[in-house]
Each structure stands twice: as structure tokens, then as C-alpha cells.
Design a protein that fits this description.
Helix content: 55-70%
Structural class: mainly alpha
Order of helices and strands: HEEEEH
Number of domains: 1
Strand content: 5-15%
Strand order of the largest sheet: 1-2
């Protein structure tokens, strides 16, 4: 009888866990749709951030948990990217 109770409690816990994950997923999707709608004019081809009114060189990506990207409207971003590529080429040689 104890194994049946353990199985029932485990299934109830898994069901509760799945429901909480689904709720969190819905919140994150809604948040993502709102943030994309607000700044979608500044993203070229969906991956390059280009906003001359934003003074930051590094900006969060559209999905913030994926990291950071460059604001390609800033001249310093182009210089940084060029220096990074040159440094990589020098390391390869």
C-alpha cells in the first residue's frame, strides 16, 4: 500500500511541477513578445542592433538570457569588432 501512495504523491508532484513550468513559460513568452514589439525597428535582419539614439556600445540581445551584442550604429562598435577580428587573425598565425 505504501508504494501506491508514493506513486500517487510523485505523480501529483510531477503534475504540479509541469503546471508551474507551463505558467512560467507563458509569462516569458508574453514578456518576450512585448519587448520585441517595442524595439523591433532597431533590429536589422533580426540579429543586428542598430540604434543611433542609444549611447551604449554593448546592448542585451532580444532574448536577454542569450547574452549581449554590439550597437552597430556606434562607431566604437565597428572599431571594437575590427580589433577583435584582427586579434583573432594574429592568434591563428
Amino acid at each position: 500500500m505504501e508504494i501506491k501512495n508514493f506513486i500517487l504523491i510523485s505523480l501529483a508532484f510531477l503534475l504540479f511541477l509541469c503546471m508551474m513550468i507551463e505558467l512560467r513559460h507563458k509569462v516569458l513568452v508574453k514578456k518576450l513578445k512585448n519587448s520585441i514589439g517595442e524595439t523591433s525597428n532597431f533590429w536589422k535582419w533580426g540579429i543586428f542592433y542598430f540604434n543611433p539614439n542609444d549611447s551604449r556600445m554593448f546592448v542585451p540581445k532580444r532574448i536577454e538570457s542569450l547574452g549581449w551584442t554590439l550597437n552597430f550604429a556606434r562607431p566604437s562598435s565597428s572599431l571594437f569588432l575590427l580589433a577583435f577580428v584582427l586579434f583573432a587573425i594574429l592568434l591563428i598565425r
